[in-house]
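Listing S7. Sequence submitted for prediction.
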Amino acid sequence: MIKIYGKNCINEAIKANAKLESIYLLDTNSKKDKDFIEKLHRLNYNVNIVNKAFMDKKFGTSHQGYAAIREDYKILSIAEALEIAKNGSRVLLLDGIMDPHNFGAILRTVDAFGIDLVILPKSRSVAITEVVAHVSTGAVEHTNICYANSLLPVVKDLKEIGYWICGTDASGDTLATSIDKDLKLAVIIGSEGFGMSKTLVNSSDYLITIPMVGHVNSLNASISTAIVLHDLMK
């Protein structure tokens, strides 16, 4: 089970038919959000009205007055992930994303721009934590996520079923806007500190660069993801 907090996160979990063991509402919120409480009772959820001291102790101070205990998120196997990919879905691979805030923000971007599948390596990757779920504002509920032993075999599998691999690198020579949007595309985003691994760089069909004119030649991984995925939208 995992703790989730924030009204949006709870609402999206309900939409996704996730199992919620218990839902907690701050007593002050319960008085001004009666429609939400009626909805929860109508859906037969176990609702607990509690004070701020209880909420802060159990969920930290970022709960916004709404929290729940949710079943663990489903993680796809490689076989399940490749079945989704065979349908021509857009795929995002994250190489070395360790920051839960970055991952949560990336999941929001993934949901916004219609990416169907996110794949990460089991090592050097953040798990789906409470912070990830909160920062995603519920987008994690609508994203297919898979953890692979290594991304290189996944890239090879994707190529075999017709995908073009779009790496991202400051020394790249391709603008995302110039890539044919009708291709089956898989995008790789590397870590902020080290970028993509050399083997993934060498396996990429395109190396996408983001033109910048500022003094600091670096973008947050979640911002880079948003720019590239936006530019690759049909």
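Caption to Listing S7: primary sequence and predicted structure tokens for the chain studied. The chain is about 35% helix and 20% strand. Residues 82 and 158 are 8 Å apart (CA to CA).
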